[in-house]
Amino acid sequence: MSDILMPKATAVWLVDNTSLAFDQIAEFCGLHPLEVKGIADGEVARDIRGADPIANGQLTREELTRAEENPKYRMKALVSRHAELLKPSKKAPRYTPVSRRQDRPDAILWFVKNHPEITDAQISKLLGTTKSTIEQVRARTHWNSANIKPVDPVTLGLIGQIELDAAVRKGAEAKRKQAEKLGIPLDDPSLKPAVTVQPAFEEEEDSPYGKKSDLSVEDVFGVGGGKRSEPEEDEDF
Questions:
Q1: Are 77 and 28 in contact (CB under 8 A)?
Q2: How far apart, in Å, are the Cα atoms of 50 and each of 36, 65, 78, 81, 142?
């Protein structure tokens, strides 16, 4: 049996205009027999207008007549031209122009630094790159690591803002589910990327100059201002 368009509307039409059994209609429309019975009783799909499967090109008159003459016969639906048009087409792999391919490492580094919640698989799909290249950029083992700088992929023209926002939302949702599964808060350090923090220089508290921002000459050299003393003249005896 082929999937048909508007199965409930088709079932409504078949119930109203044919002598088919409920099982036959249910099999053809992909519904449960009790649901078809509910349509016949006016309890289901009361506000749905019937759709003629013959006019829609999903059933032939000969097939319908054969089913009405034999209650055990199961009708075979035709492949609808409309159904072919409505089939979701598989998205082709993202193509990146040659002139912009050298910008992908910059975009990868931007994702790594600014959105660690986005997985490598997502980055690979968004930028049309490979996971090995992402790993090389992250580990700074890429052949051009010295020249790679984080740049927004939208600014580079590699993806659109809508795609970026969707990827960020998806990554944030995955992070939230991970936190709920582990039973830890979202702001827990274990969910954040590792960051090397350089300790700030702290002056010793015992130092008299530790909290003083402007030092005078007296502070450094003591009273006298650090002036060199004049040599004493010899007295005449």
A1: yes
A2: 13, 19, 18, 19, 63
**Phi, psi of 136, rounded to the nearest 5 degrees:** -65, -40
Residue 219 placed within a domain:
no
Q: What's the residue count for the chain?
A: 237
Q: Give the C-alpha separation, 17 to 224, whole Å.
A: 116
Number of continuous H segments (helices) and E segments (strands) in the chain: 11, 0
Report residue 69's pLDDT band, with 50, 70 and 90 as the boundaries: very high
The pLDDT value recorded for residue 218 is 62
Phi, psi of 104 (to 5 degrees): -65, -40
Place 194 in a pLDDT band, splitting at 50, 70 and 90.
Answer: very low
The total of structural domains in the chain comes to 2
The whole-number pLDDT of residue 200 equals 46
Question: Given 51, 85, 119, which residue is the final one in a domain?
Answer: 85
Q: What is the dihedral of CA 116, 122, 127, 131, to 10 degrees?
A: 80
pTM above 0.70, yes or no: no
Whether residues 104 and 129 share a domain: the answer is yes
Q: Which of 127, 95, 92, 91 is nearest to 108 (CA)?
A: 127
> Are 46 and 109 contained in the same domain?
no
On whether the CB atoms of residues 58 and 80 are closer than 8 A, the answer is yes
Q: For residue 59, what are the domain limits?
A: 7-85
The radius of gyration of the chain from alpha carbons, rounded to an integer in Å, stands at: 38
Co-location of 71 and 108 in the same domain: no
User: Do 13 and 73 belong together in one domain?
Assistant: yes
